[in-house]
Write a structure and sequence with these properties.
Layout: E1 2-3, H1 5-21, H2 37-54, E2 57-64, H3 71-80, E3 85-86, E4 92-99, E5 102-109, E6 128-134, H4 141-153, E7 161-167, H5 177-184, E8 194-198, H6 207-223, E9 231-232
Parallel strand pairs: 1-3, 2-5, 2-6, 6-7, 7-8
Antiparallel strand pairs: 2-9, 4-5
Keywords: ER-Golgi transport, GTP-binding, Lipoprotein, Magnesium, Metal-binding, Myristate, Nucleotide-binding, Transport
Pfam families: Arf
Binding site for Mg(2+): 72, 89
């Protein structure tokens, strides 16, 4: 199943409209998605628990990285549990992902060079950053690092939790998570909440471990008052 650029814009516009005007019920079938019965049941249960604990609120997360890093694969693996054949994202995808009592609105923004200057337009009111690195692409790791530094140094992102997926760990010659950590200069993020997670997006490996860290970290930050820009769902 191939998602072309036009489909993405239509899908994103529909999701944004629903985000602003009404809640999607967890597990409700959307156009182009066909969750299994057990996923529907789990989604409904998680939604009820989330509502009771957090008053129907959601966290805003932006997912960035160079082109072909695996961002869209990760988004749809988390969203519908499937790997879709994709083409390079021109613009953005946006989906809601519910996990561990936290409802994420995840913005997957295209990573092509001509689109990177537009990344900053997605920073406002962002609670968490997911940065995806193609661990096999050693030739561009320096570029990935420089783009990452520009993001985390931006005033709008200085209080966001940072999750890095060191993706494509199954590929020969891939940098390890520790090497990606060093390449991005993670130790320089003083006073920041961050985590680097090994991942193989096409198999779903490492994705939920990373999201588990992000969910627990954002909840902790919310309780301590470090997050004050949480959006009320459906507003």
């Amino acid at each position: 199943m191939v998602h072309n650029a036009h489909f993405r814009y239509v899908q994103a516009a529909a999701c944004v409209k629903d985000w602003l005007c009404q809640d999607w019920e967890a597990g409700e079938e959307r156009p182009g998605a066909g969750p299994q019965a057990d996923q529907i049941k789990m989604g409904n249960s998680m939604r009820k628990l989330f509502d009771s604990l957090f008053g129907n609120r959601e966290m805003r997360v932006v997912m960035l990285g160079l082109d072909a890093a695996g961002k869209t694969t990760i988004l749809y693996k988390l969203h519908i549990g499937e790997i879709l054949s994709t083409v390079p994202t021109i613009g953005f995808n946006v989906e809601k992902v519910q996990y561990k009592n936290v409802l994420f609105t995840v913005w997957d923004v295209g990573g092509q060079e001509k689109l990177r200057p537009l990344w900053r337009h997605y920073f406002n009111n962002t609670d968490g950053l997911i940065y995806v690195v193609d661990s096999q692409d050693r030739e561009r790791v320096t570029k990935a690092a420089s783009e990452f530094k520009a993001i985390v140094d931006d005033p709008l992102m200085r209080h966001s939790a940072v999750l890095v997926f060191a993706n494509k760990q199954d590929m020969r010659g891939a940098l390890s998570a520790a090497e990606v950590c060093e390449a991005l200069g993670m130790s320089q993020l003083k006073g920041r909440k961050w985590h680097v997670q090994s991942a193989v997006a096409i198999r779903g490996e490492g994705l939920y471990e990373g999201l588990d860290w992000l969910a627990s970290t954002l909840k902790s930050m919310q309780r301590s008052g470090q997050i004050t820009n949480v959006q009320a769902a459906g507003r």
